[in-house]
Amino acid sequence: MPNLRKKLPSANALFVFEAAARCGNFTRAAQELYVSQPAVSRMLARMEDHLGVRLFERVRGGIELTENGKILYRKISEGFNGIEGAIREIEARATGVESVTLSVSTAFTTHWLMPRMNRLNQAFPNVDLRFQLISGRIGGPLVDVDLGMRFRREDEIGENSVLVMPETLLPVCNRRYDETAATEAGRAHGDTVIVMDDGERGWHDRFEAFAAHGRHAASMLSFNDYAIVVQAALLGQGVALGWLNVVSHWLLEGALQPAEQELIVTNRRCCLVWPESRALRPAAADVRDWIIEETRADVRAVDRAYPKLGLRRSLADAGLAIG
């Protein structure tokens, strides 16, 4: 340890370097550390001078680690994760409560997790569940979390991820909207289509039943948060594209229903992922397994409630047998 102190301009340099390497940008690192961007730049310049090597290359839009920088970042990350794990273990021993942090969408939290939060608390009375919420499309790196819900292609599912279910989409609306849309006047008027962003415009054209039944989009509601998209459908404001892993609870409650007896299973997979740089703690693994089992129980129940969707067969074709 005395030798390590001599090799660094200061212990704080390790935190500054880790933040800059992880963020890929001096400005974002400065914001995270509550210091100025020039202060970060000066500290890292001192660190490079002290070590006698370049750690970063300045590139358009940010920074990239050199090979030496990558070696240092990998070892610092391992060390920081080990220290964080030790602190968590000490806290758990002292309080009897262990925290698990999830990186998930606001929609999943609001419409899938909250309705069953009592069951989750009963299953894990000694777990303090925390959330890193994403309002738009879920994605991005896993930073300071134990588990994240992400969509992956089949060949992207690695040792640090596990399948929840194939991505399954279906048009959903509430009963009142469906009854109105089925009338002659409703067909003539057309549908109000609810979308999350420009990437979803025209999603209804992917479903053959819309065209087969003479349906067309008369107007559109657009929100940047999928939780609001689902809420609008619950309130009868239109027909929305439903991700089954989010809307399954409302389908089973009858608050939402399929707008057409058709679904699409894509080539993407809904997965629970954890950081590659650290082992998954037993408490986080238990929460992961609980989410998977609850999701698949929902899927089995939706299949029984709406057999015309052909959900079981479609998932089997995608490689998931739901029992």
UniProtKB/TrEMBL annotation:
Origin superkingdom: Bacteria
The UniProt record lists the keyword Ribonucleoprotein: no
Presence of keyword Iron: no
Domain HTH lysR-type stretches: 9-66
InterPro entries: LysR-type_TF_proteobact-type, LysR_HTH_N, LysR_subst-bd, WH-like_DNA-bd_sf, WH_DNA-bd_sf
Keyword list, A-Z: DNA-binding, Transcription, Transcription regulation
Pfam families: HTH_1, LysR_substrate
UniProt family annotation: Belongs to the LysR transcriptional regulatory family.
Protein name per Swiss-Prot or TrEMBL: LysR substrate-binding domain-containing protein
Organism, as annotated: Paraburkholderia dipogonis
Lineage per the UniProt record: Bacteria, Pseudomonadati, Pseudomonadota, Betaproteobacteria, Burkholderiales
